[in-house]
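Example 9 (inverse folding). The structure is encoded as follows.
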């Protein structure tokens, strides 16, 4: 589904990604862990075709990203740190707008269904600018999946969410997984990684230093593997 070969990214004479190799199968949910500045968000931005790699190859569904980025972008749902929402639009207006970009059929019905799924039906027509950080994040999640993407790229999606919203987000990710969606999630929340992901990769100094399956939602196992890799990191 996703294949990355010897990926590097340099910016301002600094090598951010240093020869990343990764293969992710269709339907896998992968957590990307690592300290700040490790290159996690940069890796996601390369996959989202927002920045160009310095060297290396990225394949999605057998298509090379460099040559087919427009086609590949249609397969992707991306949730960065910013919501990408228009704050003077309501949740419904935002989702209809983004749904139309992707050619979603019956887009208004789909938007209403998603807003219900993220628990904000009562605020369907309220301007997003009046929302709390957690509410904005919920609508941003709905925006990222309005077109039923084959690949979901999430950059610290649990940030700013209360426990109820975390449960909603996790249920959305798991329901997308049931549809066959492949998910890569940058996170600092080991508990959520252990609960919803099949696999963890640990990034350190621009390289993948560990790659393992999660058995039985074992949080202690994830934490232990991470601490082992971070020894000596200030």
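The amino acid assigned to each position is listed next.
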């Amino acid at each position: 589904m996703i294949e990355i070969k010897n990926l590097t990214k340099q910016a301002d004479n600094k090598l951010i990604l240093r020869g990343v190799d990764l293969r992710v199968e269709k339907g896998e949910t992968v957590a990307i862990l690592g300290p700040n500045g490790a290159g996690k968000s940069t890796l996601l931005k390369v996959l989202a075709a927002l920045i160009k790699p310095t060297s290396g190859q990225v394949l999605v569904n057998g298509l090379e990203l460099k040559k087919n980025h427009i086609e590949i972008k249609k397969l992707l749902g991306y949730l960065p740190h910013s919501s990408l929402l228009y704050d003077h639009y309501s949740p419904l207006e935002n989702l209809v707008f983004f749904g139309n970009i992707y050619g979603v059929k019956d887009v208004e019905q789909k938007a209403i269904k998603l807003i219900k799924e993220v628990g904000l039906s009562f605020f369907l027509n309220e301007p997003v600018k009046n929302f709390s950080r957690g509410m904005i994040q919920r609508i941003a999640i709905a925006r990222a999946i309005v077109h039923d993407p084959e690949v979901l790229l999430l950059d610290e999606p649990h940030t700013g969410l209360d426990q109820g919203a975390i449960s909603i987000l996790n249920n959305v990710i798991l329901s997308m997984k049931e549809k066959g969606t492949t998910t890569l999630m940058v996170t600092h929340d080991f508990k959520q990684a252990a609960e919803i992901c099949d696999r963890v990769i640990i990034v350190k100094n621009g390289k993948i230093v560990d790659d393992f399956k999660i058995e039985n939602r074992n949080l202690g196992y994830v934490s232990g593997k991470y601490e082992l890799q971070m020894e000596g990191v200030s």
